[in-house]
Amino acid sequence: MSTTLRAVRVVGFVGALTCAIAACSSSGSSSRSAAHSTTTQRASASSVTTGPIEPTAVRVIPGSATGTSPCEKAAPTPASPGEVGAGAGGGSAVSTAAAVASEEHGARGKVVQVPLTSTDDATLRGQLAQADAVAKRYPTVADALAAGYMQSTPYVPCIGAHYTNIGLARLFDPARPSELLYDGTEPNSKIVGLSYLVYNPGGLPPAGFAGLNDHWHQHNANGGLCLRHEFVVGSEATSRAQCAALGGRKTLLTDIWMLHAWVVPGLACTWGVFSGECPALGGRLCGNAFEAPDPNTTSQCAAALRGA
User: Fold this and answer.
1) Which among 18, 29, 55, 211 could disulfide-bond with 120, CB atoms 3.0 to 4.6 Å apart, if both were Cys?
2) Are 90 and 221 in contact (CB under 8 A)?
3) How far apart are alpha carbons 237 and 47 in whole angstroms?
């Protein structure tokens, strides 16, 4: 998600997400267990390593972020806590705007990878092959729209434009990501990655991909995002008073976890396949707290604000 001054349209997001959560709750843990045991996801649930990793165990490779990549030039501050480093930020424990600002200066760059067992490696290769097939299936925004995905953000530097199918947020499935990421919002804009937005109660991220290198993040810092109807009109750094002045309401997306997967061939995401941001993605389509909207994209920014 974006900074305070970048309005992001989330088409029917809150209402649809509520329905998805209700469906998740009614389906219970048995459905989640069944999905995790599916052979297309796991060779063997008991033999594959998954789960969270302590943020203190995560190290960023020195020099992997230089400040000169398109992403870093376009967005000197990360779009949101948790989208860099280990993905630890963005939780409800980050309770003030100052703490959010501190989290947003978290370590960018390539995270040192946890070694994989032979079983993890084989399973992960299969999962990434499934993800790669999805990227090939929806090469443009037009393909995503035709498949039932709806635009949920404008193009955001470092993370792309998000198109969401909230009905796929009930379970983690590498072959069925709930979000597709594009390099713009035109019908012919090209896919740059996937995003797994998953409802997973209990305070921990989904089991996710095999191994311990998929660092999930949330958007619940400082009371959550500022939502006005179907729009995110302020980031987590927005105070309640600022949000109210924007006509919005701070909203927690409790138990909602997100993971980006940069699996599109030809896209140089040098920080890693599961990095929160992709350094190759620059631009300033709708601006941020540090710069005005790009004058060449005023019509697209206006479209993002329409109806707010």
Assistant:
1) 211
2) yes
3) 41
- The Cβ of residue 202 has, within 10 Å, a number of other Cβ atoms equal to 7
DSSP state, residue 293: P
Cβ neighbours for 166, distance < 8 A, ≥ 6 positions apart: 12, 13, 16, 17, 19, 20, 178, 197
SS (H, E, C) 178-198: CEEEECCCCCCCEEEEEEEEE
Q: Are the C-beta atoms of 224 and 252 separated by less than 8 Å?
A: yes
Specify the pTM. 0.80
Nearest partner of 251 among 92, 131, 116, 144, judged by Cα: 92
- Cα(152)–Cα(141) distance, integer angstroms: 12
Query: In the sheet where 8-9 sits, what is the strand order?
Result: 8-9, 231-234, 225-228, 249-251
For 141-175, what is each residue's pLDDT tens digit? 999 999 999 888 778 889 988 899 999 999 999 99
> Taking the domains of the chain in order of start, what are their residue ranges?
8-26+51-305
The CA distance from 170 to 31, in Å, is: 9
Ramachandran quadrant class, 95 (left: phi over 0; alpha: psi -120 to 50; beta: rest) = alpha
pLDDT in tens, 48-80: 888 777 766 778 899 999 999 999 988 888 878
Angle at Cα 197 formed by Cα 257 and Cα 111, nearest 5°?
65
Q: Is the dihedral of CA 168, 170, 175, 177 positive or negative?
A: positive
